[in-house]
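COMPLEX REQUEST
Ligand: zinc ion
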Amino acid sequence: MFSVYNSLGKRLETVQPIRKGEVGIYSCGPTVYDYAHIGNLRSFLLSDLVRRSFEYSGLKVKQVMNITDVGIGGNNDEGEDKIIKGLKREGKEVTMESMKELGDFYTEKFKVDMRKLNILTPHVLPRASEHIAEDIEMIQTLDAKGFVYKISDGVYFDTSKDPNYGKLGGTGGDESRIAENSEKRNAKDFALWKFNQNLGYPSPWGQGFPGWHIECSAMSTKYLGQPFDFHTGGIDLAPIHHNNEIAQSENACGCGFAHYWLHNEFVNVADGKMAKSEGNHITLRTLVDKGLSPLAYRYFLLGSHYRTPTNFSWEALEASQNAYRRLKEYISTLPKGGIFKRGRVNQTYKKEFTEAMESDFNTPEALAVVWKLTKDVSVPSLDKRATLLDFDKVLGLELEENEFEVKDIPAEIRKLLQERAAARKNKDFPTSDRLRDEIKKKGFVVEDTDTEQRISRV
Ligand code: AMP
Ligand code: ZN
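STATUS: Structure written out below.
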């Protein structure tokens, strides 16, 4: 029985899928104008964990994540199209073709990041540029119902016509938004379509681009129907993007939208929130260049609950990598069994693990269960391995493979290890520490057990 914190209503709720045994999830995906940063990846990981947890519990899942490869704005309608911004940043000509090329390029990079983080590919990854007709259709429906007005720069949603506008909260008193556009009827009204004389798609109102909010409304409804079960995204999207999605979708359909809204908190860095616009973002590539494993970052994220802000630091990530490596090493020492002797999943631990994940996806607690099991001498090793690998269906840490394992120790490293063993024997710890650092610079980590030096890759 899953209990989740629903941002809609701000309380824990027991999950009741709309269709028995099935769950639909829509997640706001990347804007493909740049590499995803490791903060963005936290939101995609949330979606992955939700999917994996439901599948683990035997539910059938349909997961949809959009790719924003065209569309106006972030939270404010004056925001330039981000794809156009990306083209300008890269010194490229702004045409429809170059917009597509940029979107294609960063969509591929996003897929690579997803694979590196072992995030399962959503069942549908709709691209906004391929759903313009659906956007127009939804705007027309809203128009027919009297929610739409046209001004000189675009077509807008009239929030005053919706008495329930702002269900997720956080919309309050943002008068600055009206100053941006004096023709708007209400401060909170937002663009459904924005005109552009030079570029864009034809529409009944004039050439231009759809708003980012209508894209998510149109694509979620197209692939999941309406209402559907889950909608996820970063916490910054709730006040405007998600409230606007709700207003559009509910009024167009005359029915409910997403039943459960899950929002992940931010990954922060020392100087505040990590964002592409702040210029302080770290990508998965940077991390790999520093010799860190993408899955160590996954482990790092699992260490905090998705509703807690996480402070990223290199030290913290290194500590996670060490713990992650220890876990993998431990598992690689467990017997694998064979055809006649198979490990069985320990049901007591499985219950504990499941309870943690079903309590609003409590990954820190799930990891605590993992570590508790590794230390429990009463569970046979074969069963331990089977149980840990079973948990990995949800954790997605690729615990079975040990990329840190060193099969052939290079001669140079072997020599340093011998020197270090001698230093340790003579209790010459400064030399031993210096050699450890030297070995690390060459890409290997030494750990001391009572009897030997264990070596793995950084
Ligand atoms: P974008 O590619 O900018 O459209 O963002 C994709 C997703 O990342 C959205 O759900 C954002 O809310 C989320 N997001 C952006 N910055 C962060 C951050 N620093 N930490 C966690 N999630 C973030
Ligand atoms: Zn969205």
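REMARKS: Residues 96-116 form the longest helix (21 residues). The chain has three domains: 3-268, 290-395, 411-457.
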